[in-house]
Specification:
15 helices; alpha/beta; 402 residues; Alkaline Phosphatase, subunit A; 19% strand
């Protein structure tokens, strides 16, 4: 257990407060031209702007300055877990997100269907974002793969995403991704980072060999890449370290898996922001902490669609009145990382943070955006400290020392 969690475990204070953490995935952005406005600053967000006028703003650093995080490290930081201490493989998160029970002998792998041209080069890393039913049918074909001495399971996740689980006693999961994160090049070969994981790398290589033959006629999803090859780690829960009953309301499996990993109850969230808010209202009396996740500010950024990200940011803004009608003690609006549409990728830029509570020291902000956050009272801070702020503003921490 980290030093932060040792401290929060000592200082836990029970009360009736309610905390809502609204995460607009990839919220941070960039202007298209120097001196312009970011997606968040361009969007019409009257509700978040009003919230900023009764709250305090800042910028969080997901991992370290300049480091572009994946969604796993980005969220772990928001949850108060040092992402450098808890390096969680994405395969584990995807598997937990679809309720796959991972055992101690399992290696979980996140797969992405992709498109290869006649030369074996990747032309689309996401296979045209195939529909979920198409991905499920392909997974059924891959689930027929057999490797002697190993139990192989293949399950669909959503659209082009899938999970592969290899089960054999003694397997380790320290293997490099096969996704080169680029088009016009061939998928990478699985490479073990240490001798203990060599067997897993060899098994991945054999799985891919068979998969290439099975999928050869299934363009645009005629191959797949492997990411986040890992075993499930030991990690303390929210109840242990913060003393709160925590619930997750997320649509995408990976984020549900992240929440389950840290001991949150993962609630049925439907498929839209509206159904997520319905679930929040229905569960309001049963929990102290709510993690509400919204994906599409990230995916539109990755697609390089500035206007679409603006529109999705405006959609997030519509959730604020329904959240505030529940009279939460603390509301935080932020992202897990920045995904500027200008870059079409996650970036290392600090992430906007808005914290509203009656106990805030207001900083005079009048709107929610990157420039305002740069001047905000929270300053720039590592994301792993955000939960301390949430707990403190909810009155859930005792005094430290005499």
């Amino acid at each position: 257990m980290t030093q932060i969690h040792q401290l929060t475990r000592r200082l836990q204070k029970k009360n009736d407060s309610k905390i809502v953490l609204l995460v607009a995935d990839g919220l941070g952005g960039l202007p298209l031209k120097p001196g312009g406005l970011t997606e968040l600053e361009t969007a019409r967000t009257p509700n978040m702007d009003q919230l900023a006028q009764r709250g305090v703003l800042g910028l969080s650093i997901p991992v370290l300055p300049g480091i572009a995080p994946g969604s796993g490290p980005g969220h772990l930081g928001l949850f108060g877990y040092d992402p450098l201490t808890y390096d969680i493989g994405r395969g584990v998160l995807e598997a937990l997100g679809i309720d796959f029970e991972l055992g101690s002998d399992d290696v979980a792998i996140r797969g992405n269907f992709c498109t290869l041209d006649e030369n074996g080069l990747i032309t689309d890393r996401r296979a045209g974002r195939i529909a979920s039913d198409v991905g499920a049918a392909l997974c059924r074909k891959l689930d027929e793969i057999t490797i002697p001495g190993v139990e192989v399971s293949v399950r669909p996740v959503k659209e082009y995403r899938l999970v592969i689980v290899l089960r054999k006693k003694g397997l380790k999961g320290d293997v490099e991704d096969t996704d080169p994160q680029a088009t016009g090049v061939a998928p990478l070969d699985p490479q073990a980072r240490n001798t203990e994981s060599q067997e897993t790398a060899d098994l991945c290589r054999e799985f891919l060999r068979q998969a290439r033959e099975i999928l050869k006629d299934d363009a645009p999803a005629n191959f797949l890449t492997l990411r986040g090859i890992a075993c499930r780690p030991e990690i303390p829960t929210y109840e242990e370290v913060y003393g709160v009953r925590a619930a997750a309301i997320a649509v995408y499996p990976m984020y549900r898996g992240l929440a389950r990993l840290v001991g949150m109850d993962v609630l049925d969230a439907g498929a839209t922001l509206e159904t997520q808010l319905d679930r929040l209202e229905a569960a309001w009396n049963d929990y102290d902490f709510f993690f509400l996740h919204y994906k599409y500010t990230d995916s539109t950024g990755e697609d390089g669609n500035f206007d679409a990200k603006v529109a999705r940011t405006e959609e997030v803004d519509t959730a604020i009145p329904r959240i505030m009608a529940l009279d939460p003690t603390v509301v935080i609006v932020t992202g897990d990382h920045s995904t500027p549409s200008k870059m079409k990728a996650h970036s290392g830029h600090p992430v906007p943070v808005l914290l509203a509570a009656d106990s805030c020291r207001f900083d005079g902000s009048t709107e929610f955006g990157e420039s305002a956050c740069l001047r905000g009272g929270l300053g720039q801070f590592e994301a792993k400290y955000l939960m301390l702020q949430a707990l403190a503003h909810a009155g859930r921490l005792e005094k430290y020392g005499a």
